[in-house]
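User: I'm preparing a small set of examples for a lab meeting where we compare how different chains pack in three dimensions. I only have the primary sequence for this one, and I'd like the structure in C-alpha coordinate form so I can line it up with the others. Please keep the answer compact; I'll paste it straight into my notes.
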Amino acid sequence: MIAANRVALVLLAAGQSTRFGSADKLTALLDAVPLGLQVARRLAPLRFVQRVAVIAAGSPDYRGLGFEIVVNDEPALGQARSIRLGVEAVGEAVDAALILLADMPRVTASHIEALLARYEEGADIVASSNGGIAMPPALFGRVHFESLCILAGDKGARALLDRATLISGPPAMLMDVDTQADLAEARRLSS
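Assistant: Understood. Below is the C-alpha coordinate output for the 191-residue chain.
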Protein backbone atom coordinates (compact mmCIF):
# COMPACT_ATOMS: atom_id res chain seq x y z
CA MET A 1 0.00 0.00 0.00
CA ILE A 2 1.11 3.53 -0.71
CA ALA A 3 -0.56 6.63 0.69
CA ALA A 4 -1.80 9.31 -1.70
CA ASN A 5 0.43 11.83 0.10
CA ARG A 6 3.44 10.00 -1.39
CA VAL A 7 2.01 10.01 -4.93
CA ALA A 8 1.84 12.61 -7.69
CA LEU A 9 -1.26 12.62 -9.88
CA VAL A 10 -0.24 13.22 -13.50
CA LEU A 11 -3.29 14.05 -15.61
CA LEU A 12 -2.78 13.85 -19.38
CA ALA A 13 -4.95 16.42 -21.14
CA ALA A 14 -2.95 17.31 -24.25
CA GLY A 15 -4.24 14.84 -26.84
CA GLN A 16 -5.27 15.98 -30.28
CA SER A 17 -8.76 14.43 -30.17
CA THR A 18 -8.53 13.50 -33.86
CA ARG A 19 -11.27 10.84 -33.64
CA PHE A 20 -13.66 13.22 -31.90
CA GLY A 21 -14.03 15.62 -34.82
CA SER A 22 -13.29 19.33 -35.03
CA ALA A 23 -14.41 20.15 -31.48
CA ASP A 24 -12.14 19.81 -28.42
CA LYS A 25 -13.55 16.82 -26.56
CA LEU A 26 -12.18 17.96 -23.17
CA THR A 27 -14.37 21.07 -23.29
CA ALA A 28 -17.51 19.14 -24.33
CA LEU A 29 -20.07 19.16 -21.53
CA LEU A 30 -20.95 16.08 -19.52
CA ASP A 31 -23.41 16.74 -16.70
CA ALA A 32 -22.89 20.49 -17.26
CA VAL A 33 -19.14 20.17 -16.55
CA PRO A 34 -16.39 20.01 -19.18
CA LEU A 35 -15.47 16.39 -19.86
CA GLY A 36 -11.80 17.10 -19.11
CA LEU A 37 -12.62 18.25 -15.57
CA GLN A 38 -14.81 15.28 -14.60
CA VAL A 39 -12.10 12.93 -13.33
CA ALA A 40 -10.08 15.77 -11.80
CA ARG A 41 -13.14 16.70 -9.73
CA ARG A 42 -13.88 13.08 -8.78
CA LEU A 43 -10.36 12.68 -7.40
CA ALA A 44 -10.29 16.00 -5.53
CA PRO A 45 -10.84 14.32 -2.12
CA LEU A 46 -7.67 12.22 -2.50
CA ARG A 47 -4.71 14.00 -0.90
CA PHE A 48 -2.02 13.56 -3.53
CA VAL A 49 1.28 15.22 -2.64
CA GLN A 50 1.31 16.86 -6.08
CA ARG A 51 -1.10 17.30 -8.99
CA VAL A 52 0.26 17.94 -12.48
CA ALA A 53 -1.90 18.51 -15.57
CA VAL A 54 -0.19 18.25 -18.96
CA ILE A 55 -2.31 20.37 -21.27
CA ALA A 56 -2.43 21.73 -24.79
CA ALA A 57 -3.86 25.06 -25.88
CA GLY A 58 -7.57 25.31 -25.15
CA SER A 59 -7.67 22.76 -22.33
CA PRO A 60 -9.98 23.33 -19.37
CA ASP A 61 -8.56 25.22 -16.38
CA TYR A 62 -7.06 22.74 -13.95
CA ARG A 63 -5.40 25.34 -11.70
CA GLY A 64 -8.62 25.85 -9.78
CA LEU A 65 -8.50 22.16 -8.82
CA GLY A 66 -4.97 22.43 -7.42
CA PHE A 67 -2.99 21.31 -10.45
CA GLU A 68 0.37 22.62 -11.58
CA ILE A 69 0.21 23.19 -15.32
CA VAL A 70 2.70 21.86 -17.84
CA VAL A 71 2.05 22.83 -21.47
CA ASN A 72 2.73 20.27 -24.17
CA ASP A 73 3.43 22.52 -27.13
CA GLU A 74 3.91 19.52 -29.44
CA PRO A 75 0.97 17.17 -28.83
CA ALA A 76 1.45 15.64 -32.31
CA LEU A 77 4.49 13.83 -30.89
CA GLY A 78 2.09 11.52 -29.06
CA GLN A 79 1.08 10.55 -25.57
CA ALA A 80 4.64 9.60 -24.62
CA ARG A 81 5.66 13.27 -24.77
CA SER A 82 2.88 14.19 -22.33
CA ILE A 83 3.94 11.38 -20.00
CA ARG A 84 7.54 12.58 -20.09
CA LEU A 85 6.57 16.21 -19.43
CA GLY A 86 4.32 15.19 -16.55
CA VAL A 87 6.84 12.87 -14.91
CA GLU A 88 9.64 15.43 -15.31
CA ALA A 89 7.49 17.89 -13.34
CA VAL A 90 7.12 15.49 -10.41
CA GLY A 91 8.98 16.56 -7.28
CA GLU A 92 11.82 14.72 -5.55
CA ALA A 93 9.72 13.83 -2.48
CA VAL A 94 7.31 11.75 -4.58
CA ASP A 95 7.56 7.94 -4.43
CA ALA A 96 5.15 7.12 -7.27
CA ALA A 97 3.16 8.73 -10.09
CA LEU A 98 -0.44 7.95 -10.96
CA ILE A 99 -0.92 8.52 -14.67
CA LEU A 100 -4.50 9.22 -15.65
CA LEU A 101 -6.17 10.32 -18.88
CA ALA A 102 -8.44 13.37 -18.75
CA ASP A 103 -10.84 11.72 -21.20
CA MET A 104 -11.75 8.99 -18.68
CA PRO A 105 -14.59 10.87 -16.94
CA ARG A 106 -16.06 7.98 -14.92
CA VAL A 107 -12.97 6.80 -13.01
CA THR A 108 -13.79 6.83 -9.30
CA ALA A 109 -11.81 7.70 -6.21
CA SER A 110 -12.51 4.21 -4.87
CA HIS A 111 -10.84 2.66 -7.92
CA ILE A 112 -7.78 4.86 -7.42
CA GLU A 113 -7.73 3.85 -3.75
CA ALA A 114 -7.71 0.20 -4.87
CA LEU A 115 -4.66 0.89 -7.06
CA LEU A 116 -2.90 2.59 -4.13
CA ALA A 117 -3.80 -0.28 -1.80
CA ARG A 118 -2.30 -2.88 -4.17
CA TYR A 119 1.00 -1.01 -4.63
CA GLU A 120 4.04 -2.37 -2.87
CA GLU A 121 7.77 -2.37 -3.52
CA GLY A 122 7.56 -5.70 -5.37
CA ALA A 123 4.47 -4.62 -7.31
CA ASP A 124 5.55 -1.13 -8.21
CA ILE A 125 3.46 -0.85 -11.37
CA VAL A 126 -0.26 -1.22 -10.73
CA ALA A 127 -2.66 -0.67 -13.59
CA SER A 128 -6.34 -0.78 -14.24
CA SER A 129 -7.68 -3.72 -16.20
CA ASN A 130 -10.65 -4.23 -18.44
CA GLY A 131 -10.93 -7.85 -19.50
CA GLY A 132 -7.34 -8.59 -18.49
CA ILE A 133 -5.90 -5.77 -20.62
CA ALA A 134 -3.70 -3.32 -18.71
CA MET A 135 -4.67 0.32 -19.11
CA PRO A 136 -4.69 3.67 -17.32
CA PRO A 137 -5.11 4.79 -14.69
CA ALA A 138 -1.77 3.29 -13.77
CA LEU A 139 0.54 3.78 -10.83
CA PHE A 140 4.32 3.74 -11.39
CA GLY A 141 6.96 3.63 -8.68
CA ARG A 142 9.82 6.12 -8.86
CA VAL A 143 12.13 3.38 -10.12
CA HIS A 144 10.22 3.57 -13.43
CA PHE A 145 10.36 7.36 -13.89
CA GLU A 146 13.45 7.20 -16.09
CA SER A 147 11.80 4.62 -18.35
CA LEU A 148 8.67 6.77 -18.55
CA CYS A 149 10.78 9.75 -19.62
CA ILE A 150 12.32 7.97 -22.62
CA LEU A 151 9.07 6.71 -24.15
CA ALA A 152 8.26 7.80 -27.71
CA GLY A 153 5.15 7.89 -29.86
CA ASP A 154 1.47 7.50 -29.12
CA LYS A 155 1.49 4.12 -27.40
CA GLY A 156 2.14 5.72 -24.03
CA ALA A 157 3.48 3.34 -21.41
CA ARG A 158 2.04 0.11 -22.85
CA ALA A 159 5.38 -1.72 -22.79
CA LEU A 160 5.77 -1.02 -19.07
CA LEU A 161 2.19 -2.04 -18.36
CA ASP A 162 2.99 -5.59 -19.49
CA ARG A 163 4.55 -6.18 -16.05
CA ALA A 164 1.85 -4.43 -14.04
CA THR A 165 -0.22 -5.87 -11.25
CA LEU A 166 -3.79 -5.48 -12.49
CA ILE A 167 -6.87 -4.15 -10.71
CA SER A 168 -10.09 -4.88 -12.59
CA GLY A 169 -12.69 -2.25 -13.08
CA PRO A 170 -16.07 -2.24 -14.79
CA PRO A 171 -15.93 -1.23 -18.46
CA ALA A 172 -18.34 1.67 -17.88
CA MET A 173 -16.03 3.16 -15.25
CA LEU A 174 -12.88 2.69 -17.33
CA MET A 175 -14.35 4.04 -20.56
CA ASP A 176 -12.45 6.75 -22.33
CA VAL A 177 -14.12 9.22 -24.62
CA ASP A 178 -12.50 9.22 -28.04
CA THR A 179 -15.50 9.80 -30.32
CA GLN A 180 -18.84 11.61 -30.32
CA ALA A 181 -20.49 8.18 -29.84
CA ASP A 182 -18.36 7.63 -26.72
CA LEU A 183 -19.52 10.97 -25.34
CA ALA A 184 -23.15 10.04 -26.05
CA GLU A 185 -22.60 6.77 -24.13
CA ALA A 186 -21.00 8.63 -21.20
CA ARG A 187 -24.02 10.95 -21.12
CA ARG A 188 -26.38 7.97 -21.20
CA LEU A 189 -24.54 6.33 -18.30
CA SER A 190 -24.73 9.57 -16.29
CA SER A 191 -28.49 9.88 -16.58
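A couple of notes for your slides: The beta strands are 7-13, 29-30, 33-34, 50-55, 68-71, 96-101, 125-130, 133-141, 165-168. The domain at 4-190 is CATH 3.90.550.10 (Spore Coat Polysaccharide Biosynthesis Protein SpsA; Chain A).

User: Perfect, thanks.
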